[in-house]
Amino acid sequence: MAKYALRLAEHLRKYLLLYVVLAIVAALPIGYYAAPVFKASKELMKNLIILLAIATLYPSMIQLRSEKFGDELRKKVKDTIVGLTFIFVVAPLLAIVMGSFIQYKQVAIGFVAANSVPASSASIAYVLLAEGNLEFATLLAITSILGALVSVPLWVGLYANTLSVHLPLALLGESVGLALITPYVLGQATRYYLVKVRAKKVIKTPTISLPCKSMVPVDPEGEPLKLEELLRKVEDVLECIEGRISKKIKPYLSLATMVSMLVLISLLIANKAYLLIAKPDIATITIGSQLVIYSILIASLIAVSKVMKQSYEDHMAMTFITITKNESVAAAVSVMAIGAAAAIPAALIPAIQPVISIAYLSMIPFLKKTLEK
Q1: Which residues is 325 bridged to in the sheet?
Q2: Which residues contact 341 (CB under 8 A, 6 or more apart)?
Q3: 218 domain residue, yes or no
Q4: What's the rounded Cα separation, in Å, for the pair 27 and 271?
């Protein structure tokens, strides 16, 4: 079972962009001809989108190692401040500027929401592929989740007011809280059980033999270990076992995330297919504006990393956490607090986000050379 899950997860990850495009293309005619059905089922569609958004987020929240948060923060205070400035200030401001080119108010507000949400589960995967600093990336990912509880309602509410659209901050805050806190709490609780509790059970079971357990000397020859050394070794073994358990469940989590995301994108597009086909400029302006934002963010991040003399590893962590957003959160917030049309950017951006990320990975030799200098 695990073998098939791993193969399917690798297949979906490899061809994710293709499947996203296929999901959008297939959803357009279905949604267009079934427009009366979607219109008559607004409340049902809203609830389905919220549930799918949470289902997409939940597996990624299991993989977040919150226990490493404090240690990494103490080592990376300055870099964290710079990274959070890009995530919470620069990206939303750029979205507000580019949102002025989108004529449809709800879509423009949704565009700002799509650029104010925290990082996606794919962010850590891209950092891993780039051989970046995973601990720093995790720190920024967790901080962006917590900060989004304030930043998303703030930026979306302020921008909506400039368009004379009244959105109660309480409703925005409630929608962000539901979309982020629920999967985060459930994910960390699941992680504690699957990883922490099971790791302790494994280390206490004499009948189970794992390479990790051989790290602890049961009956050491010669000088016995000091208590603190033995405790440190036990902690190392626990972390080793946790890593093995995490690796074992990761294919299932990745598979669940990608399948949920594809279904969510299909539903979002189908729900507003009539509008997209009637007004195709919505899609072109949204995608074009997002590409401009990516270009400015990447150029600025390279320049800042150069000025700060930041390592290549830290730069890649900061960049991918900044540019890859969790559009499932944006979709949930949009349908709960703004309107169904506001979820269009959250459905379209995943079609170009992997392209930009993979293109940036192809720049690794240039980036290493530039940042080393």
Answers
A1: 119
A2: 104, 106, 107, 110, 272, 275
A3: no
A4: 9
Phi, psi at residue 119, to the nearest 5°?
Answer: -70, 160
Query: Would residue 217 count as lying in a domain?
Result: no
Q: Per-residue pLDDT for 332 more than 60? A: yes
Handedness of CA 36, 54, 182, 357 (dihedral sign): negative
Q: Could you tell me the residue range of the domain that residue 313 belongs to? A: 2-203+225-372
Give the three-class secondary structure for 6. Answer: helix
| One-letter amino acid of 33 | Y
Q: What average pLDDT is seen over the chain?
A: 82
Q: Which tens digit of pLDDT belongs to each residue from 133-184?
A: 888 888 888 888 888 988 999 999 999 999 888 887 777 888 888 888 888 8
Domain total of the chain: 1
Which of 183, 191, 209, 189 lies closest to 245, judged by CA? 191
pLDDT tens-digit series, residues 279-322: 999 999 999 999 999 999 999 999 999 999 999 999 999 999 99
- Can you list the positions of beta strands (E) in the chain? none
Q: Which residue do the tokens 């104010």 mark?
A: 116
Residue 103 lies in a domain: yes
Quote the pTM value: 0.79
What are the tokens at 323? Answer: 């540019």
pLDDT of residue 218: 47
Instruction: Give the chain's end-to-end CA distance (angstroms, integer).
Output: 48
With both helix axes pointing from N to C terminus, report the angle between 2-14 and 227-271 in degrees, rounded to the nearest 10: 60
Counting Cα atoms < 13 Å in the Cβ hemisphere of 93 gives 8
CATH of the domain at 88: 1.20.1530.20
